[in-house]
Design a protein that fits this description.
By secondary structure, the protein is an alpha/beta fold. The chain has seven helices and seven strands; from the N terminus they run ααααββαββαβαββ. It binds S-adenosylmethionine.
Length: 225
């Protein structure tokens, strides 16, 4: 890729700032670790009205479906989780700093556990990391590398016993920041997860291109492990 290719889709000053971001970007994992280590948060999607909308949807879902346990792939700094009402919870994340923040924030809460996630070294043949509901909130469009995306999706859908809820965009867009890659992730699920069906799509609180919605997948009875 040439410098010209990097800047072509972007006008003026924004083009330069985006170029700087693209040059500085190494990997999705190091991006997030660096971000948290600098004292930054999981992002505006986990705070304010957007965070509250996610919590409202998920808390109602957990209640309505008598979900007993939740596992989250990409739990972040724990702010979103502080609005959650789950009986039992496991959060995993690629960022050591994020896990340390959650460990501190939920110190003394026996219903919540946290683990550092390394997709390459995650081999769960004994199905230890499973829950009634597996969730992925505002993570999929941050999975830049193809192999990282594939592994993440496999682990996410393997870990859900009954449901998987994904809160993400589901479209392809060009000209985004280097740490954003919108994908048509439902195509991957259709091709790779025959035991799962898309039961419901609920519009998210945002509008415009790249908006995230709630995608609820249900495992078929025959596909239960
Ligand atoms: C925008 S934040 C969302 C955090 C949280 N889910 C929430 O809704 O508040 C994205 C999170 O995904 C994590 N992440 C990025 N790549 C990941 C991967 N391959 N596996 C697991 N987590 C990942 C980041 O470290 C970050 O904490």
């Amino acid at each position: 890729m040439t410098v010209k290719d990097l800047v072509r889709p972007l006008p003026g000053v924004r083009r330069l700032s985006m170029l700087r971001q693209r040059i500085a970007f190494c990997s999705s994992e190091s991006f997030w670790e660096r971000r948290y280590a600098q004292g930054l948060t999981s992002g505006h999607g986990s705070y304010g009205a957007l965070g509250e909308a996610k919590a409202t949807f998920l808390n109602a879902f957990v209640r309505e479906h008598s979900v007993r346990s939740v596992i989250e792939f990409g739990c972040g700094d724990g702010h979103q989780l502080s609005m959650a009402d789950y009986p039992r919870y496991v959060g995993v994340d690629v960022s050591r700093t994020a896990i340390a923040l959650c460990k501190r924030k939920f110190d003394g809460d026996p219903s919540k556990s946290f683990f550092l996630y390394d997709g390459v070294c995650f081999v769960d043949r004994g199905r230890l990391f499973t829950a009634d509901l597996a969730i992925s909130l505002d993570v999929i469009y941050h999975l830049i590398e193809e192999a990282v995306f594939e592994r993440y999706m496999e682990h996410l859908f393997n870990s859900g016993e009954r449901f998987v809820v994904v809160y993400s965009s589901n479209t392809v867009m060009r000209g985004t920041a280097p740490y954003v890659r919108h994908r048509h992730f439902t195509t991957w699920v259709d091709a790779n997860c025959p035991q799962w069906s898309l039961a419901q799509v609920t519009g998210g609180p945002n509008t415009g291109p790249g908006r995230a919605d709630f995608f609820v997948y249900e495992r078929s009875e025959s596909g239960r492990k």
